Amino acid sequence: MYKTILSLGFATVLVSSCNTDELHELNINPQAVNQIDVNFLFSAAELSIASNGASGDNRYIDWRTNIGLASTAIQQLATTGGISSVGNFYFDNAETSAAPFDFTYNDQLKNIAEILRQTGPGGYDEGKKINTRNAARILRAWSFQRLTDFYGAVPYFEANKGIEGIYFPKYDPQSVIYADLFKELEEATAALSSSNADDGFAKADMIYKGDVSKWKKWGYSLMLRMAMRVSNVAPAMANTYVQKAVAGGVFQSNSDNVWVPMSVGPSEWTNQNGISRAFYPGDGGNPNFLSKRLVDFLKGTNPASTADDDPRLMIISGGIADWNATEWKPINVDPLAQKGLPNGKDQSDLDAIEGRPVIQVQTYSRMNFRLLQDDDPYMIMNHAEVELLLAEAAERGIGGVTGAAAHYNAGVKSAMQQFVPYAQGDAAIAAQLTVSDSKVNGYLATYPYGSRPALEMIGEQLWVSKFMNWWEAWQDWKRTGYPVLQQFNYPGNVTGGTIPRRLMYPGTEVASNPNFDKGSVNNYTSRVWWDGGSE
Predict the structure, then answer these.
(1) CB 120 within 8 A of CB 164
(2) Of the candidates 149, 155, 139, the residue with the CA atom closest to the CA atom of residue 65
(3) Which residues have C-beta within 8 Å of that of residue 383, sequence separation ≥ 6?
(4) H and E: helices and strands count for the chain
């Protein structure tokens, strides 16, 4: 105690001899990082939207949510076990629900918040990084659109502001979030210009290499997606922003598609395609097969003939095959023999259906391993979606869009011809993933626009165009009701036998954020605002 008193007295003398400015300087860590290279942050944000972020395993969010729930709930894949049982049988899994919330805030939105802080008023890069700043705003809008579509109300205006002392952000209604995202997209796309001096942007931008004309198209295409997403509950808003998106200029071809490049290194945990890693034997090895719903759709109305098949059948399917850690072993690659695994069925159900003990790898079609290499690029958004949304807008009289059939045909063509980037420059593989114009035209002649209800045809094509982008296919289905899907009341399911319509909030958020008050909708079955639910 005596030594403590002496020490305190000595400290008092020192303090009394220092002025306020000197004390302030002593309180500043000269080793602290006061700024981070904005170009580095921008590249990190782009990687993060492809499920590659600072939070760790680059397959985690895809495996839990995109594959685990959406792929099987939307009935493009099917399984009898594993984490994809969440969507296949409507089970609960805390990680599946929490992953998008945790990763989005802690990865891309965290990096984007710092970009906007450093390039904003008073920031180190204020006025120097105009294109970087506004491209980051488009990334932010994309991230928040996906996040609010999963959960409904989420922290928005106060999100990622821990540096300002906001540790428990309040929740904002989805309608308010959407309105602000429209404003953000409109301002950001307008501010982008090739005349802006922006050192390093082209090198930092892995998606478009600094091509601001393509960033503008992405911004307006995202605006179109969001406008159509609110069209059932806010028709005036939808009409306004469809018009603005079309006037601004949306995607024109597959050359505008948003791909994030991946690589095989530097490690198993960095820069690799998270979808591929979730399926690859010896790594994720996720035990999924193509669903009966999808394979039947691709085989056309006459399953005994290939004449009316969708040309994507043997691109999406690699055949009935055994895939292990050392090889892909085809068993049957005959298009007529392809067979999908029924959703909502367990092994005993399959045995009963087939009338024998079923060996799944010898019976059901697998995803094409050519689409599942660790360094395959990661698809974010495509031209097919834009054309099909324009077809829907024209069909429904939204935004002054016309020419529904032409937009539909263009969307189907782009969807069929979008797979070549997975070849990564290998001519032989590219040939396997290419659909010729003549095959597209043959398919469109077999199933001409309007030969069935137009909105149903559009909805089905939106669905199949988003193969591997299952979380967005899930959102489209919720809004349009297409394709028509069978639902299953499997024992132990948590939805009463209905396809999930939203994610549950993370348990840590429910327990720790005093501003969380969404308990009434914290389930899998209530609807978000644009889906006809409450705020």
Answers:
(1) no
(2) 149
(3) 251, 252, 253, 254, 256, 257, 411, 414, 418
(4) 24, 9
The answer to whether residue 16 scores a pLDDT higher than 80 is: no
Residues 464-492, mean pLDDT to the nearest whole number: 97
What does DSSP say about strands 365-367 and 317-323: parallel, antiparallel, or unpaired? antiparallel
Q: What pLDDT sits at residue 14?
A: 32
CA distance 78 to 87: 9
Between CA 41 and CA 43 the distance in angstroms is 6
Q: Does the pLDDT at position 13 exceed 70? A: no
Quote helix, strand, coil % in the chain, to nearest 5.
50, 5, 40
* φ/ψ of residue 453, rounded to 5: -50, 130
d(CA 409, CA 387): 8
CA gap 260, 256 in Å, rounded: 12
State the average pLDDT over residues 51-75. 84
Q: Which two tokens stand for residue 522?
A: 């914290």
Across 364-371, average pLDDT: 97
Nearest CA among 311, 329, 312 for reference residue 320: 329
Radius of gyration of the chain (CA): 25
pLDDT tens digits for range 175-205: 999 999 999 999 999 999 999 988 899 999 9
Which one, of 430, 429, 428, 384, lies nearest residue 407 by Cα?
Answer: 384
- What order of strands is seen across the sheet that includes strand 328-332? 328-332, 317-323, 365-367
Preceding peptide of 483 cis, ω within 30°? yes
CA distances from 189 to 79, 130, 132, 249, 393 (A): 42, 11, 12, 10, 22
- Tokens representing residue 235 in the block: 């028709």
pTM of the model: 0.92
CB 119 within 8 A of CB 133: yes
How many whole angstroms separate alpha carbon 343 and alpha carbon 340? 9
Q: Is-cis flag, bond preceding 266, omega within 30?
A: yes
Q: Are 394 and 224 in contact (CB under 8 A)?
A: no
